Amino acid sequence: MKVGLFIPCYVNAIYPEVGVAAYKLLDYLGVDVDYPLDQTCCGQPMANAGFEDKAIPLAQRFEAQFEKYEYVVAPSASCAAFVKENYPRLMEKEGHLCQTSGKIYDLCEFLHDILKVKQLPGKFPHKVSVHNSCHGVRELHLSSASELNIPRYSKIKDLLSLVEGITVLEPAMLDECCGFGGMFAVEEHSVSVCMGQDKVRHHMDTGAEYITGADSSCLMHMQGIVSREKLPVKFIHVIEILAAGL
Amino acid sequence: MSTKHAEAANRFIENKERETWHNETLWFVREKRDRMAMDVPEWEQLRELAGKIKMHTITHLDTYARQFAEKAEANGVIVHWAKDAEEHNEIIFKILTDHGAKKLVKSKSMLAEECELNPYLIKRGIDAVESDLGERILQLKNEPPSHIVLPAIHLTRQQVGKLFEEKLHTEKGNSDPTYLTHAARQHLRNEFLTADASMTGCNFAVADTGEVVVCTNEGNADMGTSLAKLHIVTMGIEKIVPNHKALSIYTRLLARSATGQPTTTYTSHYRKARSEDAEMHIVIVDNGRSEILGNDEHIQALKCIRCGACMNTCPVYRRSGGYSYTYFIPGPIGINLGMLKAPEEYYDNVSACSLCYSCNNVCPVKIDLADQIYRWRQNLDLLGRADKMKKIMSDGMKFLFVHPSLYNAALNVDTVVNHLPRFMIYNGLNDWGKGREMPVFAKESFTSMWKKGKVKKSKK
Amino acid sequence: MSSKEDILNSIKRHTRAQYDMPDLDTLEGIQYPDKTQQFIEISKGVGGDALLLDGDINQLIRTLYPEAKTIASNLPEITIATTNPDNVDDPHSLNGTDLAIVEGEIGVAENGCVWIPQNVKQKVIYFIAEYLVIVLDRNKIVNNMHEAYAKLDLGDKRFGVFISGPSKTADIEQALVVGAHGARGVTVVLR
Question: Which of A9, A116, B32, B255 could form a disulfide with B261 if both were Cys (CB 3.0 to 4.6 A apart)?
Fold first, then answer.
C-alpha cells in the first residue's frame, strides 16, 4: 500500500513532530509512506476567507503531487476535509476531474477505518481531554456530532483507548468550536478569543493534563490562549500519543 | 480588517458578565433542544423529510400558492397579494381604514418586522400594539428584537422592571419575572378587549385546506383573533405546505428546535373569520422571495421555518448578541437572508462565522447555512466588499504556496520567524495578539528534516 | 397586471430544478406502550395536568377549582356552569370567566396536545378563562402528531386548535412564567 503523506503548512512549520509521529506510526503499521517534497498548502485559509479561486492553483498542484498514491493521509482533519469537500468543485471549474478527493483521509480516520488498527505498543499514563474539532466532527464524521440523534461513537476515543495507561476525557459542550476558523480568528478576534478561553476552561475543568485532538490548528489556537494566560495544561496531537514508544 | 459585526461584537464582549449570561442562557436552550431531539427516535428522518417537503413545495410554488388562495377564498377569506413591503403595508392600512379600525393588536410576525409595518401604521394614526410579551417590552422600549424567537433575550429583568415601572406603573424596584409577566397580562388584556382588529403572522399555510396555522405559547394570537371582528394574516409566500400530512412533520420539529418544548402551547388553525359577521384577510407577500427561487446557491434559505435554533447553537451569535448583526434577523440564517436582501448593505455580517457547521446540524429543515455563508464570502470580492487586508494576505499565501522553493525557503530556520508570521497572520498580528500568544515556530521544518533523512532515522 | 399575477409569474420565471414530494409513508412516528400514561406524564411536563375520571365530573372539577365562581361551559353534563358560551353574542363579555370546561376530540401522547375543533360559538372561551378544563375520551389518545392529523377533520368549522398545557412565556430572562395571556392552568379530564 503506497501512501502519500500530506503535512499541512502550519504543521510543517510549527509542529513538525506531529509529522514525524505520523511517519513513525504508519511505518510501524507496515505502510509504505512517501512524502512528496513540493507540497505546500491545501488552500483552505484563503478559501474560508473568501478567496476560493486562489486555492485553485494549489488544488492543481496538490493533485499533481498526490494523485499517484493509493491513499493520501494528513494529520489534520480540517485540511483533509477541505480537500475532500471542495477540491472536486474547484477543479471542475478548470475542467479537471479530481482524483485526490476520494483518496484523502485524516490520519485518525485512516487508522480507524482503513488500517482498522486494533492494538498499539505505546503507553501514555496521563489524563487527556479530547478536542473534537468542527471539521473533524461535522465534515469527516470522526465522532457523532452532538446535535444529531445518531448512535454515539468516537473514532479518536476508540484509537486512544488502545494506548496503555491513558485516561480519556471530554469537555462540557464537547464539540463546540474553539474559535480558530482561519482568518476568522483575526477578523473577529474578540469573539474568537472568547470562544478559545471558554474552550480551554472546559478542557481544563476535566482535570486533564493534556488537550489532544486531530487538528493542530485548533490546538495552536488554544495554545495561544494558554500561553498568554500561563495556564497549567499541555497540548499534544492525537497521533503523537498513538505513536508513543515508537 | 474589521467588520461592523466584529466591532459591535467587541463592544458586546466588553460587558463580560452580560456576554457570559447570554452565551450560557442560549446554550441552555440548545441543550433543551438536544434533549427533545434525542427523545424522538425518528428525529433525523423528520428533518430529512421536512427539508425535502419544503424543497418540493417551493419549487412548485405557483401551483401551491394558487391552490392555497383558491381554498382560502372558498372558505370566505379575502386574499391579497403584495409584491413588496410597501404594497403589504398599503394593503393592511387600507383594510384597517375600510373598517374604521384605530387599534390593531398584533401577534409576533417577522414579516411585519421585515416590512417595517409598525412605524408605517403608527405614522398614519393606527395604534399598533404588539401582544407577545417580548415584543411588547421592545415596543415600549422602542427597540428591535435581538432574536427571532426570544426577542428580548438581550435585556435583564431589572431593565424590564424599570421599563414597566415607567410605562405600566408597576411597583418600584420589583423585577420578578412572574410579577412583571402578570402585570403585562393585565395591561395587554385591556388592549385585547379594546382592539378593533387583530393581526397574526403565519407559521404554516396549508394548501389543500386554505388554513393558516399559528403557533404561540402565550395565546396572544388567539386572544386577539377571538375578540376582534377583523383578523389580518400576513404571510410570506414560502410558508405554504401541501397538506396536513406534511404539516404534522413541522409541528413536531418547530417547538422542539426553537425552545426545546415538545410543542407550543397553542397550535391554532384558522380556516374562516371568527363569526358570520367578522372578516378574515390574508396578505400573501413576495418581497424578493420569488427571486431567490432562481438562486441555486441560496434557494435553501426559503425552507426556513424561523425556529431560531441556528442562533442558539451559533458560538458567534451567543457571544456577540443579536444587535451585533446589521440585518434585523441575526445569526446564521440572518447572515444569509440579509445577503439575499441587499448584499451591498449587509455584507458586514458574513464575517460572523467560524464555519463550525453546527447550524447545519440543528436546522430542522436542513438548510445548508454554513455552506451558504462560505459561498457569500466567495462573492464579496466581486461585490467589491472583500476585506483588503484579507485579500492581500490570501494573495501572499497563494504566491508563496504555488512556489514550493519560496515556501521551503520560508520554512528554513532563519527566515521562518520573519516570513511565516507574515503569511499566516500578517498585519492582523496585533489582533491575534489580543488574548493570544503567537505560535512558536519549530527550529526545523518537517520538510527540511525529511530532506536530511532525519524523519526516517528518527525510528528507534 | 395584478400583483397576484406578477408574483405567480415571477415564481414561474425563477423556478429552476423541481423536486419531488418525498414519500411520507416511510415515516414511522414514535409509539408508546401505554399512551394514556404517557399522555398524563407529558401533560404534567408541559405545566398542565391530566387525570382519569373516577366518579362524578362536576364534583371532581369543584374539588380542583374550589374558588371558581363564573364557570362557562356548553357541555350538557356540566351542571356547575354559570354561563353557556353558545348563548353569548359578544365574546368580550366572557372576560372575567374563572373557569371554562370544554370538550377535546383527540389527545396526543408525544406532546400533551388536545385537539379542539371549534365546538362552542365563542372560541375565545378556550383562551380568556383564568383556568381551563378539557374533557377528553381516554380512548381517543393517539401516539403522535401524524396520527392526530390523519384523524382530525375540520370540515366546515371555522377554527381548530391543539392546546398543550397552560399559557406561558419565558420572555423575561428565560424565566418560565405560567399565565401569559391564556389560561393559567389546564387540566385534561380523561373519561
Answer: B255
